[in-house]
Amino acid sequence: MGEDIKNSLSQLTANKFLGKLITQYAHIHQRAIGSEAQEYIKQLGIRTGEWLEAYYNEPTWTPDDYAHAIVDIKNAIGGEFFISEVTADYVVVKSNKCPFGSQVKDAPHLCMMTSSVFGGIAARHFQYGEVNLRQRIALGDPNCEVMIAFKPGIESGECYKDIPITPNNGNPFTWEEDTIALLNKELKRSDDMVMKLVQELEDLKKQVENR
Fold this sequence. Notes:
This protein has 211 residues and is α+β, with helices and mostly antiparallel strands. It has six helices and five strands; from the N terminus they run ααααββαβββα. β1 and β2 (90-95) form a beta hairpin. The mean pLDDT is 80.
């Protein structure tokens, strides 16, 4: 029996475990606060992208530099992204694997993280980014395909422009106090919903036991 348990866990990795936790929390969070959950993920992605940019020393990027950077970023965290097309006006990247794994199907709004990381970086380097998630593993497509435009009118997508840049020696993850207060409020709503669900399960269990 002990050996069977060991074998059943042989495929479990830290990335899979964290991916499952993140997607399940995101799913619960969305149920608790609705569409606002996607906006939080968007803002987190914009800040995460700026933090990741610090790993690259080039102050000025070409579209080719940009394409290689976003693919590097995604692959560094467990994705399988590759460049499909690079032009002066847009970039197309594809992926055979999501960094969140198949668990992303539990919370497809996490795709906003990809959109906002890509769009925020584009906006900071080219003054504009418009991200069209053409195909998404999270929605059942066989792979992901993302187009990032550096000017309006190419394809309809999520727009990113006038993205604030953290001052030198600052921290992209430092939130304004009012943002922190709002986030804490919404997260508390998520936690309250979880506790309510737990209580409902306990009540159901008691009803079954009393039959």
